[in-house]
Design a protein that fits this description.
Two copies of one chain form a homodimer. By secondary structure, chain A is of the alpha/beta class. Helix content of chain A is 44%, strand content 15%. Chain A folds into three domains: 60 residues, 434 Repressor (Amino-terminal Domain) (Orthogonal Bundle); 130 residues, Rossmann fold; 131 residues, Response regulator (Rossmann fold), CATH 3.40.50.2300. Chain A contains 13 helices and twelve strands. Chain A binds a DNA duplex through α2 and α5. Chains A, B: InterPro entries: HTH_LacI, LacI/GalR-like_sensor, Lambda_DNA-bd_dom_sf, Peripla_BP_I.
Chain lengths: 349, 349
DNA sequence: GTGAAAGCGCTAACAA
DNA sequence: TTGTTAGCGCTTTCAC
């Protein structure tokens, strides 16, 4: 611990200070302050005396000592890849609020998108004896999560899940979302559709791609892997992949972006290439943010219910803590919704 | 603590388990594991033996016990009014990352904009013996912050500060920002300028209003309090105040919004009233978000350096922990920047 | 080179 | 109705 050398926390007054001030033993003081006066038939005088002394000394029971004694920390851990990303901060918020409601405090950690950091953080959190863990994994490795779970730690993974896993997971219905998106494009007559994808190897990306393929297959349209580009959820990546697709395949009439930033990048590329949306190019993206309504061309999106992802995760860890067992149902899919706006139009005939 | 009744944390293997497995005493095991083998001249054999045993048992030293013994928790607290707000989550992120870098873990708490909740949370965090505290106060009361500081807790307040306070504070240069905004509008010939303000009584709002008044005064333009409306930083509030101002004072040619959501609300109101931006109405707002570039009319903004607010706060608490003293300089102003885009135009002549 | 013992602040069995 | 005692898991004197 690099924090080693620093100055120690100023000592507060302790329970025994209070006891001394009130002229009673530590146990009596403890009982009086914890509302056990009834149960132990402590005299009203004593109780009041103790409480007054505590008040006067500004006594705050040390949660550290309490945790050690009770073997319960009242701590819940959250790990996200990037707290500055509204998607993750919304999840973090819901979990934090739920935790506070349940009398827990939330330790929040930012893995910065690195699996290595994620491992370290999860280790640290276990050392701190968090009583449960909500993690939005970077999404490429899961053994450390499984490990923590096997040690008996209630854990739920959110968003970037793992297929066929014993982990408790909650994520949006990416498959259905991608199908919804593609169906809308097909209904509007589009046949050559480009896909701007996110981080490959993560379940959201893979499932969405599967949705694309299945919808095309059902419509009897061959899937052209040439029309898929990109490897990140960022604006930059969206821009470059869009430019690439639009120049190598000028017959494209629509673009399906896997994230809002990807779509913004696509907008930029389109405007540089002199393509108007939706007249020359339809655009549709996964994820919905408040701002898209105010865009030049309001974006049609597949909206995830982000707060619900967080709430469900919180509910699942809470239940595990209460029952002591992981839920029977492992994979929790949260429905998505098509938000139809102006960026998708009929294919130019 | 409502969390009382739940199941206790599964016990991990402890130091004495490791010691037993290695056939040494707890003290030796502790020293070997903490890299004090040199200092205590522990034999290499013993050291390796201990480390192997620890490894084999999956030993993770209990931070709880450690904290109690060392009187140091390695915990830092962060309190924000709304983690779902990108402004605060960006700050939280910077502080969290800085904390992790310094070997600390961050406990994050969401006050939901309630002073009462804020008080409770700060109490809880002190009971948990956080070693320092970064808080984005709701902004209307500060005594509990001053109190925590006087107990010797390194504390810095971010954003919603208090004038003439002994608190260590970091906030944007709201006054300069508002002046920048007003100057731009004046340069473009605007004389009747409406102001959509945020939560009254908070320093950001008050300072920005002051900036408005001073700039007008300097230009010899009378300040008309009728042209100020609003009481929140939300889209709703912006919409209603904008409608109100634009209908009661149809001679307005520009609107200065104190937040991005306020500005979005104003956009909605303007479009409903058939006012085009910037031809009929110029619009300018405080705060810059990535999205404004993609708006129908890209917004001219006063950009706060939000990450820097967080980083500076983190630096200030860290220094306080190291030196044990609050910094001499109390108020830290972070510069703002004018981002000129399309939403401000010449006044129609 | 290593161990025994004390103690961080609290709670809970047991005793009175 | 209250006090004594032990112990949560760890570090650190002090002793050998």
């Amino acid at each position: 611990m690099p924090a080693q050398k620093l100055k120690k926390t100023r000592a507060n007054s302790t329970l025994s200070d209070v006891a001394k001030a009130a002229g009673v033993s530590a146990s009596t003081a403890s009982r009086a302050l914890n509302g056990l006066a009834q149960k132990y038939r402590i005299s009203e005088t004593t109780e009041r005396l103790v409480k007054e002394s505590a008040e006067r000394l500004g006594f705050r029971p040390s949660q550290v000592a309490r945790s050690l004694r009770l073997q319960r920390t009242g701590l819940l851990g959250i790990v996200v890849p990037d707290l500055a990303n509204p998607f993750f901060s919304a999840i973090a918020r819901e979990v934090t609020v739920a935790a506070e409601l349940g009398g827990f405090s939330a330790i929040l950690a930012d893995s910065g998108g690195s699996v290595k950091k994620e491992r370290e953080l999860i280790d640290q959190l276990q050392a701190r004896h968090v009583e449960s863990l909500v993690v939005c994994p970077v999404g490429l490795e899961f053994d450390h999560l499984a490990g923590a779970m096997q040690r008996g730690l209630p854990l739920v993974a959110v968003d970037r899940c793992q297929a066929n896993s014993s982990l408790v997971q909650v994520t949006s219905d990416h498959l259905a979302g991608a199908k919804l998106a593609m169906q809308l494009l097909l209904e509007n007559g589009h046949r050559r559709i480009g896909v701007l994808q996110g981080l490959p190897g993560t379940l959201p990306t893979e499932l969405r791609r599967q949705g694309v393929r299945e919808t095309l297959a059902q419509a009897g349209i061959p899937f052209d892997p040439q029309l898929v580009a990109g490897d990140q959820f960022s604006e930059q990546a969206g821009y470059h992949s869009a430019r690439e697709l639009l120049t190598t395949s000028p017959d494209l009439t629509a673009l399906f972006a896997m994230s809002t930033p990807n779509a913004f990048g696509a907008c930029r590329a389109a405007s540089e290439l002199g393509l108007r949306i939706p007249q020359d190019l339809s655009l549709l993206c996964f994820d919905d943010v408040a701002f898209v309504e105010f865009m030049k061309v309001p974006l049609t999106t597949i909206a995830q219910d982000v707060p619900e992802l967080g709430r469900r995760a919180a509910k699942l860890v809470t239940e595990q803590m209460q029952t002591g067992n992981p839920p029977r149902k492992k994979m929790h899919k949260i429905p998505v919704k098509l938000m139809s706006r102006a960026s998708v139009g009929k294919v130019p005939s």
